[in-house]
Amino acid sequence: MNKTTKGKTEIQFIYMTTGSKDEARIIGRELVQSRLAACVNIFDNMNSFYMWEGKLQDDNEVVLVAKTTRKQVPKLIEKVKSIHRYDCPCIVSLPVIDGNPDFLRWIENEVD
Questions:
Q1: CA 68, 74, 76, 77 torsion: positive or negative?
Q2: Would you kindly state where each structural domain of the chain is located, as residue ranges?
Q3: For the domain bounded by 8-110, which CATH number is listed?
Q4: pLDDT for position 84
Q5: Which residue of 7, 72, 96, 112 is 20 to 30 Å from 66, comparing CA positions?
Q6: Parallel, antiparallel, or unpaired: how do β-strands 8-9 and 55-69 relate?
Q7: What is the DSSP string of 23-89?
Q8: Which pTM does this prediction carry?
């Protein structure tokens, strides 16, 4: 059975955005190779509206979802920030409440 904290798994999905598929692939590959994430999914061609420096932005971005453990989140965030081209990249951790125990265990086994 997977590890739990007060009824929640230790698994986290990390939602991130980048400005290009190439950058997303670099980040995803680095996170998996360094064992900070078991898997990274990339969703290309997302449209984003946001305010930046007082101006409305309308950009195409790429979404990444990394599967990791709560313990690895701080290291993962620092790694992404060190290679990301944005000044203030979107990196947010979403707790996984429940799921396929075999899959959750696989994530735990794949990260250091």
A1: positive
A2: 8-110
A3: 3.30.70.120
A4: 96
A5: 7
A6: unpaired
A7: HHHHHHHHHHHTTS-SEEEEEEEEEEEEEETTEEEEEEEEEEEEEEEGGGHHHHHHHHHHH--SSS-
A8: 0.89
